[in-house]
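As the work plan foresaw, our protein records have gained a structure token line. A representative record is set out beneath this paragraph:
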Amino acid sequence: MSFINLDAGARTYIASLKVDPNFSAITEATSRADRKSLAYAAMTTAEQAVQETLVPKLESLKADGLVQSWDFATGTGALILNVDDSRAKAAFQALQGVTELGRIVRNQEVVLDDVVEGDVAAPKAGDKTVEWNVAKVGAQDAWAAGANGTGITVGIVDTGANVQHEALKSHFRGTQADGTVTSDYSFFDAVNGKKDAYDDHNHGSHVAGTSVGGTEDHLTGVAPGAKFISAKVFTAGGSGSTATILKGLSWMLAPTKADGTGADPTKAPDIVSNSWGNSNGADLGYLNAWKAFEAAGIIPVVAAGNAGSRPDTIGAPGSYGESITVGATDINDKVASFSSRGPSKVKDKDGNLIPKPDISAPGVDVISAGKTANSYVKMSGTSMATPAVAGLIAVVLSKYPNLSAEQVRTVLAQSAVDVDAPGFDVNTGWGRVSAPAAVAKADELFGSKKPAPTPPTKVLAFA
């Protein structure tokens, strides 16, 4: 596993491989642990079949001076290509004739656009503090019912993580029993290639704290019993790209040791929290990765975006049907003005625009961990709502670990607190999540091993 190191004078393209993975060995009875290995094997087998004829063609293009270098984002069906900027047009035309490649596009910058309101004072030692967003979703009631995320891992694709922070250290999967920290299978840096976990922005630490973090006295996360792992795909300035993100997603499908060796899909997370997205909801550049997640039983939770209150502003990959897409609400259960509205720009198999977002969670004035020492930061955005939903799903999975993504989607939909138009609406989806209601609904639907219910019908309601 390598980090993205673009050649000088190069232009970067992202190409989709024409892969057709065979996921037939995965059935409803397959455990989540087995699904990860089977899905990754099917995906990489399909990629390797394409690479057998593709690589010689790339070598030929390199000999002709049209391609400088390339890298496969294993498991995502994507190829990252660097071409000589002065010969980009000729290179692009030549690549169009490579039959193993599908869609080819320029590498796109992806920028975090959440509102950072600055540092806030940490609670005094001994003070019992529950952040408002944790209380709002009733997380403590779910914990009291015996579900707090234990046994579940959340993958955070973001700016990294300050794993020495008091609210994060014990929740980081790389923290050992003696308090030492290792990045093996727990941290990957697609930006700078560093081996030790860090965060030079705040965003990733804040997200991790909202999902699974907190101390005994200061509760910031919805699933404090869960663990998290982190892929850094954004810079200190909050800028990433399709290429860095694809490498981070690749690592999530099969985490590695700190030196990039030993890729192991059994160590993949159960949930991947994505507090990012681009502005083009019709972009399908991440779809192969999302298909791999779906086959592996890994649930992708994605921010709706901060382009509200205009309609039709859900970005990719939140626009995908495979995503559990999250809008933001405030302390009064009102949809945040910035929260992107649906529906998606992507159509389902019947040709209808996919209704989005799926669900909402608190995302205004959220306090969580920062990048330095034991600092705390207040931030607003659908980025803050997304990890809360990832944490809530971890809570449910800690009691019912083999639920599928669709079963989880049903639990969320049928347990949400309706806060906007009745039923499903394109502002908040099915409503604001509730942890105790979600656990109770999972008990009702699956406690006696009942058959999976039919997902609820989404009826679009425009504000």
About this structure: The chain is about 25% helix and 20% strand.
